[in-house]
From TrEMBL:
It comes from the Bacteria. Residues 1-36 form the signal peptide. This is Outer membrane protein beta-barrel domain-containing protein. Keywords: Signal. It comes from Marivita cryptomonadis.
């Protein structure tokens, strides 16, 4: 959920974007491998009527992504085109331009352009897998961090994420289940700042 709110006491005196950037640097020296070409689509519906959608596609050394959020005071669309830089023995750095268009509930539109920097990796574990993602964006000092643990061969994953900018913040936990061996995933979770539950569906061909 995106809305203009004051920063909570947890975040006072602490730069979320700096924390995520440090996390990205830590990932850069950890063993792992990046994902191959593929597509990712995700829709989350919250019980307060908000909607969050993500579309991402990787082809070769390029990643293309789009996001859409509908919240209580408006809606936001984000786009990015990132160049990928695989790290031997590690994951993948990515950097490129980003764009954002927001419209509030009074019809005022705000368009912004910036630069996005990120790092991601995937690594198998003894009893599952780990996917990690860290991103920062110069648009409204945006940041996002995610840890996703795959639980054995069950198709079940536990996900924890934090995100924010100059105008919003969120912390989320989610549980997901892949249907069989296909790309369809059902998910549900809770957003702690917004204090709402959500249900979602994803398609992941990575």
């Amino acid at each position: 959920m995106r809305r203009r709110i004051a920063k909570s006491p947890v975040f006072k005196g602490l730069s979320g974007s700096l924390v995520v950037l440090c996390f990205a640097l830590f990932l850069a020296i950890a063993p792992g491998r990046a994902q191959a070409d593929g597509e990712f689509v995700q829709f989350d519906w919250s019980d307060n009527g908000s909607l969050d959608a993500v579309l991402a596609m990787t082809r070769g050394q390029m990643n293309y992504s789009a996001t859409f959020s509908k919240y209580d005071s408006g809606k936001t669309v984000g786009l990015s085109v990132l160049r990928l830089f695989p790290v031997e023995g590690g994951g993948t750095f990515k950097i490129g331009p980003s764009f954002q268009v927001s419209e509030d509930d009074e019809g005022d539109v705000d368009s912004l352009a910036g630069l996005k920097l990120g790092y991601e990796y995937f690594t198998p574990l003894e009893n599952g897998s780990l996917f990690a993602l860290a991103e920062v964006n110069t648009i409204e000092s945006g940041y996002f961090g995610l840890l996703q643990f795959g639980l054995g061969q069950s198709g079940v994953s536990l996900e924890m994420s934090v995100g924010g900018s100059d105008t919003y913040e969120e912390a989320t936990v989610a549980l997901s289940k892949r249907l069989g061996t296909g790309p369809v995933i059902l998910r549900g979770g809770y957003k702690f700042v917004s204090e709402v539950a959500f249900l979602g569906i994803a398609i992941n061909t990575f």
